[in-house]
Amino acid sequence: MSGTTTPTPEDRAREEEITALLPALAALDKTAAQLEAQTASGKEVTAGEIATYETQAAHARHLVDAASVSTSEITAAEAEHRSNGERGFASRGLDHATHTRHFEPSPATDAGNDKEQEVEEEISL
Asked: What is the full DSSP assignment across the chain?
């Protein structure tokens, strides 16, 4: 005997519930990686990009909390479904969901200031 047991319907339902979290964690991992790369390279980070990250983190946190999923369950599900993202995506996504980073939008560029001045000039006409 190999020692393995046949999964019960409850076990399969739990596995499906955990697997359903992977796309949200993958999306959060991807968004966080993009923001971190933009910040590190000095590229523009917009308030909209930050809001997307924060919304994804809150959503993933809600899903993980509602399912009462442990880190080891997430890691095991990722190992079985590696095609959903880069190696470690679920653990990184879970880390961002539980420890959301704070990003700052890039300061407005001169082009943005010119646009504001044009609007003010039009209004004063």
From this structure: -----PPPHHHHHHHHHHHTTHHHHHHHHHHHHHHHHHHHHT----HHHHHHHHHHHHHHHHHHHHHT--HHHHHHHHHHTGGGSSTTHHHHHHHHHHS-----PPPPPHHHHHHHHHHHHHHH-
